[in-house]
Prior knowledge:
The protein is mainly beta and 180 residues long. 8% of the residues lie in helices and 52% in strands.
Amino acid sequence: MKHLATVALMLNLGVAGMYAQPLNMTLSGTNAPSTIDLGTGTPTSEYNLDGNGALGSFTLRAVSASAASPQQSSTCSGLYVPVLAGEAVFRFQDGSLLKVILTGGSDCIDLAAGEAHCTRIFQVTGGTGRFKNAFGNDVTLTMTVAPVVPGKFVFFTVTGAITGTISGVGVGHGSQDGQP
């Protein structure tokens, strides 16, 4: 009987790590042009962000490249620029890494307000530690981006949120594969 209870508990804990985990995280940081080449032939932006949420404290380093010129959009009253490519890595307080690649997104630039509303949609491709077996689609980063010095479009402040769900997250907050 004791053996059955132990097995049931182990199965329950193992399966709990496979359920979809909601991502409700807030973040802030900076954005600037980057020398990283994502192969699109267009400039790349780099985001360095810190945040907190259901999975704990984290840093996020993301790079993305947008189209060369604005396009028409029925959802953006400013300059609408689709995002072409990108990738990012979350680093959590326990040292676990979560890797994602860009599957969509856009920037809606409001010149009158002096800010942009930016969306990046990612697919989870795995990670290390508790994210070793992580997977998921539609992890959405929404940001408000504004120049540090009004009218100078070189260095930007960023505030935002991450929503969506991921599955395959290991139980606990420590490393599971020997890596930090």
